[in-house]
Amino acid sequence: MNYFTTISANILSKIAVFLFCLVSTVGFSQDKSFDLLIDKTETKILYDRVFGISNATEARKSEISSNYFMQVYHEIQRADYLNRLPVLENLQNEANLGFTKNQVPLSILITDFEKINSASIENGDLFLDANNQFQLKNNAQNVFDKHSLHLIAPLVLKSKSSQVTFVLNDNLIFNTTNRTITSIAIQASDDENWKTIVKNIPFKINFSENGKQTVNCKITLSNGAVIYQSFVITIDAQSSGIANRNNSQNVQPNAVTTITATIPYQGFGETAAFFGQGEYEIFPDTVDGILDKPVFLVDGFDPGDSRNISTLYASLNYGTNQNLADFLRSQGFDIVLLNFPTYTRPNTTTVVDGGVDFIQRNAFILVTLINQINAQKVGNQKNVVIGPSMGGLISRYALRYMEMNNLNHDTRLYISFDSPHQGANVPIGFQHLFNYLAFGPAGNVTVQPIVNGLIKSPAARQMLIDHLEGHLQTGSLFEFNTDSNSLLPNGAPNFRNNFQNELNSMGFPVDTRNVSISNGAGNGTNNYTPDFEVMNYTLNITTTQRAIINLRFTPAANQTNQVSRFRGQQFLVFFWITGFESLANSRAPSFTSGLDSAPGGRFDISGFSNGLGTDPILTQFFDNLNADYFTFIPTWSSMAVGNTNNLYTPVTSSTTTPFAASSIPTVNENHVTLNATNVAFALSEILNGTLTTTNPAFESLWIKNPVANNIEINTSYTINNATISITDMLGKTIYISNNNIISGTLEIPVSLSNGIYLLTIGNENGSVTKKIVKG
Question: What pTM value is reported for the model?
Answer without folding.
Answer: 0.80
